[in-house]
Every structure is written in structure tokens, then in C-alpha cells.
Amino acid sequence: MPWRNTGWLQEALLAVTLAGAVFMGFIAKIAAEIKSGERDKFFTKRLLLDVPALIVMCVIAAGLNIWFGLDGWPSTSVAVVCGWAGPRSIDVMIMAFADRVRGGKP
């Protein structure tokens, strides 16, 4: 059916797939943090702070996929890596920037 190949449907499916892949990477990272003892449990206030970072990582994953021209499994793996590294790496970068602005660490 021709309506299945329209641009908006393909873009919506891509967004849902990338968001799911980023979410899976995020879940894997939280499971690793719980296992290592960095987190006590899954549902905490810290999880609410990670949700905006997940949205940003979805956009970054989509941008990387477009930039490198990735399709299929490679694009999904980029999204999973973004989900794994995303919330914590964004937190580390923001804290380093905040320390530099405050004059704490050189």
C-alpha cells in the first residue's frame, strides 16, 4: 500500500525505534548501576532527572544516524550506545561545567 511508504510514517517509525533503543540502553545502564551498588533501586528521584537526558539522547542518536547515513541495525546500535552513555555522561559534563563556572576545579 502506498500510504505505508510516505515520509511522515517512516519518520514516526524511526523515532519510535530510536527511542526504544535508547530506552533499552538506559535500562541496561541502570541495571548495571544497581548491580554495582551505585543505585539502591530502579524507581528513585534520580530517575526523574534522567528522563530529560533520555530525550536529548534520542535527538543525538537521530542526528548521528543522519550524519553518518546509517540504516537498520547500525542505527539501532548507535541509539543503544547513546542510551547507555547518555544520562550519566550528560550529568558529568554539566557538573564539570558547573564546577568550572563556580571556580571549583580548574
From TrEMBL:
Keywords: Membrane, Transmembrane, Transmembrane helix. It comes from the Bacteria. The chain crosses the membrane at residues 12-31, 51-70. This is Holin.
